[in-house]
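I have been asked to look over a protein record a colleague put together. Alongside the sequence sits a line of tokens, each denoting a local backbone shape. Please read both lines and tell me whether the tokens look consistent with the sequence. I do not need a full report, just your reasoning and any doubts. I have pasted the whole thing underneath without changing anything.
>
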Amino acid sequence: MHKQKNKGFTLIELLVVIGIIALLATLITINVTAARQKSRNGKRRADIVSVQAPLEIYFDANKAYPSTSAAWWGTCSTYGSHDVTGANGWIPSLAPTYIKRLPSDPLNSNEPCYLYRSDGVNYKVIAYAVSSDGAAGLSDTKDTLYDPQRAGTSWMVCSGEPACSSW
């Protein structure tokens, strides 16, 4: 009698292949998530730099920065749920005259948000670096926009003292 040979994969072989595919999928997902996080933080950093020139043009035209009476304003509810344009913008009256529209956080959520504070003489703009697990997302203390007042969590642009060091 002739024995018939079974063709196909064994259960062990299939489980090994499925395990390898699952491991590769996990690694790819982690790398993509990290790349998206880094991209959003790069946009946050660029966004706060983009409002510097319009703020200086506003100052030249009005001899003062847009004032928030030294209170923090932002688009998130904790800081007043301000708009991205007009007198109620998170930088009041800067947009649409001096910049088309104020930037908003790339996650398009209530938290985090960009913050602005000014007494008319000085200003400070803050963008928080966010990591996907909620921990601080900024580690380069040599970054020129690193905010020492919020160590490891934010970038800032400001007009000078006291805004840069104590706000």
In short: Residues 11-50 form the longest helix (40 residues).
